[in-house]
């Protein structure tokens, strides 16, 4: 048997990303050894830049069906697996098996468990090709450094998800984290790789990000759709927080937000769909002509686009979390309190002319966080990183390390959202808990909750809330249970001689 893993045979889709052409439904069938496409992609700096832009497009591209809208689909799955995103009806199957905590433990599932594995390796494999080839392209050194830096950062970013999903959580208290992680694929060599340790994967992530920051220190894109020095530092801050590396979490969170500002209250209510918002550090911008007929983030998560999924199944906030938001906090206006007085602020899904659709489903605590700018189409920008997150990372890292300035950092964000907020007098775990509540409210619907629960070794607890037991299926999962690890897809075990049944998660 050849030592080729299944992921290595499907991931290097350079034909699909070269020259930023659109990805078709046969993307995953692209021949990874096509030398003509590789030659074209690296024949000039211009074409290499187009290939890099194509790689960014994979973040929101739809693969084969509407379950698989790149990372933007995974963001919904990650929140669906938490306790703060509440489905109101069975509705269509999309993200439902994640909400029920079934898809990630099904080795044959191809729409969530299998797709996550292969999608993030698509990013990695295409980044590997850019990293390997760009030095040999004729052109300016700074231009090549920028392309390579962004590719390294994208590879690291993809590995942060893979290792958090398929490996056990990183625990700094145990020393070296030798528990199985995911294969480290760092070249275009198609040979199958064994599962590297969680420690080894994080070491590679940090190395990639450090190299990326060095390469991007003197240049880089000014477009928020591309990674630059500031947003790469934001990824580095996330990684440090996950590794309980408090000093670096503080350092990089501060530096990531240094040139940004928090949004105004008016901007907070505009719908989280415009990348020009001053608080956004990184996001995807999906043009109208690239929105799929079915699927896309806003067809599932917007409060005003009239799709079957939004019209019959509004997404709500956990009722217990909602109750913890002060009335003077602008963020509370993003969820309906269920009263007739507040109902006009939540017209729900709209017709193309802006009038509310008749006979749509409504539910207390339904959101209006995500709004398409034109209700006649599902295009919009999706936030991948905001400055608010960096305040929360710094505050949490300071609180976890006993730094007395933690409450002051939290205050900077919280008073922006709530002018009546008073600086916290909490200390220790009580302050950490307060920061976590702020984080849950601030980042609702942005794809963080499952990862936050896992990294903090917290229970999933949906009990005594507005989750419907028959719909949610799972109301409680204790921290540290086997269910927190996603299973390695069976297709990878079947085809990769370096990973056998004995290497599967329990």
From TrEMBL:
InterPro entries tied to this protein: SusD-like_N, SusD_RagB_dom, TPR-like_helical_dom_sf
Listed SUPFAM superfamilies: TPR-like
Annotated ranges, domain SusD-like N-terminal: 26-241
An annotated GO cellular component: cell outer membrane
Principal localisation: membrane
Annotated localization: Cell outer membrane
Keywords (A to Z) from UniProt: Cell outer membrane, Membrane, Signal
Boundaries of every RagB/SusD domain copy: 358-505
Tagged with keyword Signal: yes
Family per record: Belongs to the SusD family.
Protein name stated in the entry: SusD family protein
Originating species: Parapedobacter composti
